[in-house]
Amino acid sequence: QDINAYNGDQPEEKLPFPIIADANRELAVKLGMLDPDERDKAGMPLTARVVFIFGPDKKLKLSILYPATTGRNFDEILRVVDSLQLTAYKKVATPVDWKPGDSVMVVPTLPDEEAKQLFPKGIFTKDLPSGKKYLRYTPQP
């Protein structure tokens, strides 16, 4: 209820996301989630805030470890989930600071002819000092 109240929501019995209770810190120790620099009143290391994102193949796709003193950035977590979902099924990569709807990069292993067929909205390249055209972009499919 405290989590919902903090976020301005009405307290509910069930949260819309899972939370694992680990009062004895057994899981935190196994997963290396203890913050060595931050300690509680008893001198025990605080647990760090960790985000694990798994793909449909049940493999870990991303983990972010936040120190106990730093809050998580949910906008960034949602951005990463959008990127992971897009890039899992399309032959694209998302550049730094990409947001849904922005142009994406065509993966470098995709030949130009195949890329033209897969991305009918067109492909454009970034002008680089070397003159090489390896940074290929397309509107988000």
Notes on the protein architecture:
The protein is α+β, with helices and mostly antiparallel strands. Helices cover 23% and strands 23% of the residues. The chain folds into 2 domains: 72 residues, Glutaredoxin; 55 residues, Antioxidant, Horf6, Chain A, domain 2 (2-Layer Sandwich). The strands form 3 sheets. The protein has a 4-stranded antiparallel β-sheet with strand order 5-6-8-7, covered by helices on one side.
Could you give the topology of this structure?
Elements: H1 2-6, H2 26-30, E1 34-39, E2 45-47, E3 49-54, E4 60-66, H3 74-89, E5 92-93, E6 104-106, H4 112-118, E7 124-125, E8 136-138
Antiparallel strand pairs: 1-2, 3-4, 5-6, 6-8, 7-8
Report the CATH topology name of the largest domain: Glutaredoxin
Query: How many DSSP-defined strands?
Result: 8
How many separate domains make up the residues?
Answer: 2
Helix content: 10-25%
Residue ranges: pLDDT <50 for 5 or more in a row?
none
Radius of gyration, rounded? 21 Å
With strands numbered from the N-terminus, the spatial order across the biggest sheet is 5-6-8-7
Strand content: 15-25%
Look at the structure and give the mean pLDDT.
88
From the N-terminal CA to the C-terminal CA, the straight-line distance is 40 Å
What's the architecture of the largest domain in CATH terms?
3-Layer(aba) Sandwich
SSE ordering: HHEEEEHEEHEE
Q: Which term fits the overall shape?
A: elongated
- Characterize the largest beta sheet: strand count, sense, and whether it forms a barrel: 4 strands, antiparallel
Please state the structural category.
alpha+beta
- The number of distinct helices, counting runs of at least 4 residues, comes to 4
GO molecular function: peroxiredoxin activity
Pfam families: 1-cysPrx_C
InterPro entries: Peroxiredoxin_AhpC-typ, Peroxiredoxin_C, Thioredoxin-like_sf
Protein name: PRDX6 protein
